[in-house]
Amino acid sequence: MDKVIEYKKIVRELLTEIAAMALEQDGGIENQLITDDQHGHYLLFYVGWEGTKYYYASFAHLDVKANGRVWLQHDGTDLPTAA
Amino acid sequence: MDKVIEYKKIVRELLTEIAAMALEQDGGIENQLITDDQHGHYLLFYVGWEGTKYYYASFAHLDVKANGRVWLQHDGTDLPTAA
What we know:
Structural class of chain A: alpha+beta
CATH architecture of chain A: 2-Layer Sandwich
Shape of chain A: elongated
Largest sheet of chain A: 4 strands, antiparallel
Distance between the termini of chain A: 43 Å
Strand content of chain A: 35-45%
Number of domains of chain A: 1
Helix content of chain A: 25-40%
Number of strands of chain A: 4
Oligomer: homodimer
Order of helices and strands of chain A: HEEEE
CATH class of chain A: Alpha Beta
Largest interface: A-B, 17 and 17 residues
CATH topology of chain A: TATA-Binding Protein
Radius of gyration of chain A: 14 Å
CATH superfamily of chain A: XisI-like
């Protein structure tokens, strides 16, 4: 299905761009870009330490379903920076 | 690096097996198997509703680093079933 492939490409590019921005900002924390075309899952994940504070949090989580629907499973854009 | 490819294969198979078991048990909750060979991230994720309770939780998260090290970033084996 062309639509599904196209949406996966768009979501992948979007998260890659956000990940690049996030990588510039956060020193000690690993910003994991997770892209799974096979199952249609795309995540940005914070893992690691900032000083004495440990982060393990989803920052963004989008799914591209087999029917072409895009689900925003999680939007954590206001979470980890508010420490 | 052969070791890295082999470890990714092992971690992928391990999580696929656990996901298959989880899928049998949990009715309303989507058990997402997330495999990203490109970046070396492998997750099992719970997303969805069980009655009136919403789950969004990492169940397992393993990373295969470029140097061949395998990191268990998260082990949530005793989390979502304790509702």
